[in-house]
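Q&A FORM
Asked by: J.P.
Topic: structure of Protein asteroid homolog 1

PROVIDED:
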Amino acid sequence: MGVHGLTSYVGEHSEFFVDLQLRNIDVIIDGNNLYHHLYFDSNLDIRHGGDYDSFADITRQFFQSLAVCHIQPYVVLDGGNDASNKKCATLKERAKEKIQAAHSLSRGGGGSLLPLLVREVFKQILTELQVPFVQSFSEADRDIVSLANHLSCPVLTLDSDFCIFDLQSGYCPLNYFQWRNLCKCKDSQECYIPARCFSLERFCRHFNMNKTLLPLFAVMSGNDYINLPAMEVFFSKIHLPTEKSRRKSRKHDRIQGLLNWLSRFADLSEAMENVLKYFKKHEKEDIRQLLSSFMGEYEPSNVNLKDFFQSGMYESEEMKKLKLPQWIETHLIKGQLAPFVSDALILRSTILPVQVENMQRDSAHSITLPIRQVIYWLLLNTAPSSLSPPLNKQPTSFPPVFYEFDRLQKSLKKSSVHVAELAQKFPDSWYALSTLNEAPIAERLLFLFEAFGVSACILEPVPCLLQLPMAVTCYWTQFSEPKLTLQHIKALLLGVTFGELDKMLHIPDPERSHAEVNKIVREQFLKWKENKSPKDYLEIDVAHTFCQWQCCLQAGLHLNQLLCRPLPEPDLTRLYNGTLVHRLYHQLKSSSTPENLLSTSPKIYKLYCSMVQIVKDSTPPGFFQKSKSQRKKNKKIISKLPDIRESTMMDTLPFCSTNRFATLAIEN
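REPLIED BY: S.T.
REPLY: Here is the structure written out as tokens.
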């Protein structure tokens, strides 16, 4: 949400703010707002699918700054849409805007588009750092206000709606929260973060205005979800008192004029009657009800998230009405199920987020339609009366239908999607949604592998944390359009291997015989990532191909979460780096230097070979055409490496032999 133009308006008035030195305090953080702010404010990649490792580092630094100042964060994330789906129209407009942004970015233009997996990476960092977080059932704003007032602490966000909410301890805008610039108190030498807090009292005093009028001001001004055409009738008939503004802005003039006009009235009732004077008699009651309804969005919710942070659960009247299975409620609240699952379960409707992809091709999400159909089947596989009537009601068509909003070229298209027909293949009651969490892990694993068309044995050569990404990669290889080359596979898996190498260097390992070589290999990979070439451009079909892989991974995460994680979730903070993968792809076009470099680190090279072989084993013979580029060793790089290997190592090291067990002969 956010009142249009209000953030920039209040930003021009320092008198509305109080300077703070934040330390030894609790803060409530708007999670969605924070991860957007951290990603965009850090100038990270948005064209190549995201630099999740860099984002993870920045997020860690943010929370480490809070810890140094003894600031205890409580993070609240948005959930899905509520059962009324009242914000559907606005969300569709946002989706259309993102498609245009993606199109602009794909052609070298500007735009802001968050990479697909940022939210999941953010949650993993919160878990890693043991930062307490909760996922609201729908939009989190009102829950955040309620929690902040229960705990008497400020809210950290960048949403101008928090200038309207009545917060006991105020709202600290993220753009004034100087977490990178820690200071020390002169007397105690304690660290603090310089911040500014918006003061509702100062704001209202400036306009000599009753604060109960602010929700009416917000609704009349319009925000991301409220746009009443009737208000334009009001504004066309009234002359709003304005002052000379510091810079010319129609939005600012309207904001200031409306605030000045409303300040004439003693209370909400008087203000409402004066607004209604400008409407025809037969319109007044409808307008009154609309305004009153939307003003309710600025009331704190009845949900007490304090209960969750104390006991691990909270009660929601909305959830009670839906009669969801208890384990579903719990997993939604803990953020263990994505809003996608919530929307599909409650609304049977989802909006699929666009990426920077080829707008002339089918949406990158098209590749995962069969996986989503499996998810929809699980969500509908309920025992009679286990869900409330709206959810349990079967549509007239058969099989049941879900609705998806997805990109079609440069527009947003609504499609009806039938669920997968799996009742005969999986007749067991284990797969009923109400008891899915109780199904044996072997059954859930079988279901997951069946969905991606892989067998458990083919994934055995890689660690458990990489088995889901490898299952996803095998699926992607089979169904990607345009068809993949081995170059795509190797670039992706070299990127995954780089993440594993980075993990090895950051996590102490008793077997450190090749630590120096690993450092040199890592440094060279970082150079490929960071050194921009004059010819560095976005090859749109390559980008589209890797977008499809991210869609496959996201669908895999959603299905794995719904099955209560029969496979451990991969470390997304190191799994994929878009910039690096794209550069490796182009590097592999002209040479095999990245692979040859990797071969100097036997343990990590063995992992890479195993992953490449898994993909080869999952495809029919002759699936990959041989690359025309010759594989030449980069003698310049290899010569810099210390000779700490046995003299026969390079001679005996297989280059991803067709026998997937050959790599087991490599010494660690």
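FOLLOW-UP: Confidence is low (pLDDT under 50) at residues 384-390, 392-397, 627-668.
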